[in-house]
Structure formats: structure tokens, C-alpha cells
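Look over this today:
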Amino acid sequence: MKRVHVITLGLASAAFVGAAWLVLARSEAAPASVAEAPQARPPASAHDLLAPTPPAQRGALRDPVRFERWMQQQSSLRGTDLDGGWDVDARGQLHPTIALRRRFDQLLTLAGEAKVEELTAYIEQDVRDLAGPTAAAQVLDAWQRYITLQRHAFRSVDPKDPQSLQAAHAERQQVRRQLLGLELATAFFAEEEAQFAALLQQRQAGAAEPPPVRGIAIDRQTLAPEALARLQKEEAAWADWERRLAAARDELSRLQAAAELSELQRRQQIEQLIAQRFDAKEAVRVRALLHLSPA
């Protein structure tokens, strides 16, 4: 599953506040990949979804093999490849990057469908099979720390008040380092913290229009030719995805407003639209972003 970039900036202070709020709001309260997977029920809070299963209900937990089969065939992630990676080397040592957080975040989109203990058991078995027990223990430690962060109750934020945003950001930085440790916190959140710092700097400098931000600014002149080629390829793929998604959103609006169509005809044309313009993996993401029911 491809990574979703969600930050877009408009004009002046309203755009600054909106973009800054996105950087903060997507960090812990809802995992970054939640928007990519359709949900079968209205989302509860992260604390409720990630609460430990009461002992009386633990007898119904699926073992890792059954859970993986369910995830691949029946869950909201069916038909997709897990994003990110386990970040372990050939010796079974953990070297965390943003890829590990992306893997955790995508698994957490199942929190409304599966129990946290099932996710934990699946992670342990999958990493153990891949890289051995030492790697599994290290990844599980990172997972448990990340779950603790997701459960943390941060103070409320006024998205219209830049000072409130700055205080909230400082609180998040502190809590992340306390709960995750410096290495994990840096690997998981350095990009978002850099985005937020750039937004604050623009605001304090009185810039009329902050520049578009999708990540940390990259000096292309310092890139090796192969790295520059990969960057250009990713940017082209992202631009193509945005173009196709925007066109699908426009077409969906037209179909939903077409009074001459029956409900059955409308659903059939929407299904045809998605099938023609997106592959099976993309379709899961498109349905979530366009607020459509799973196929």
C-alpha cells in the first residue's frame, strides 16, 4: 500500500493554522494510515480501540496463523500489501525508520476489527519467522511503546490559536521521547516535527504564503543521480495518483447528483468508475478517501 501525503497549504494565516493542525492531529490520536482503510463502524477514540481485552474475552483470540488468513481474506486490508517494513537487519537487530511506524500504523487501522493482543501476536510471529526471536523482541518492544503513545491523553488544542499549536507540539515532542526513547521518536516523527517547525518559522517571519510541504525540504543538487531519478519517479507517480483521484472525485460528485439514475444504476456506475481507473490495491484506498462502502 502506498504512502499517503496529506499536507496541502493555502494562503496566509488560515492556511498555516490548518496545515499545522493536520501535522499535529495525524500524529498520535489517529494513526497516519487510518484514512487508507474503510471502516465498518464509526471510529471510537484511540484509547477505546486500543484498550487491552478483558481476561474473560481472551479465550476468543485468534492465533497468528488464523489472524493472518483473516487479515488477507476478510479484513479491511484484504487484497493489499502491508506498508512499511520491520526494519531488522540480517543479524536480527532493529534499526528503526519511518517504515516501521508506517507498518505499525497500517496494522492499527484494524483496531476496530481485531483485538490488540491479536495484532501483537501476529507481529511477534511474523518478525520471528523473518529474523528470529531477538528481532521479534525488539520490534515488540517498539510496538508496545507505540501503543502506549497512542493511548496517551494529550491536552486539547485550539487549532485557531498558533500559540496553542506550539504548546501542543512541544508536549508531543516531550511525551514521544519519554515513551518511545530518543531513537524511536526521531525515526518516527522527525519528518512531521520538521514540517511543523517550518510552518512556525514561516508564520513568525510573516510570510504571506507558506510554500507547499510534503516532507523535509530536499536539496536536489546534493543527490546522487540514482537518488534523484528515484525522487523524480516518486513525484511523477504521486502527481498521477492525485490527478486520477481528483478526476474520480469529480465524476463521483456528478454521479451522486444525477437525478436520472436509480440507486442501482448509480452504484453500478460508481463500481465501474473505480474498476476502470484503479487497480485492486488502489481501490481499497480510493473507497476510504471517497467515503464509499467496501466492495
About this structure: Residues 1-18, 29-48, 207-217 have pLDDT under 50 and may be disordered. DSSP finds eleven helices and no strands in the chain.
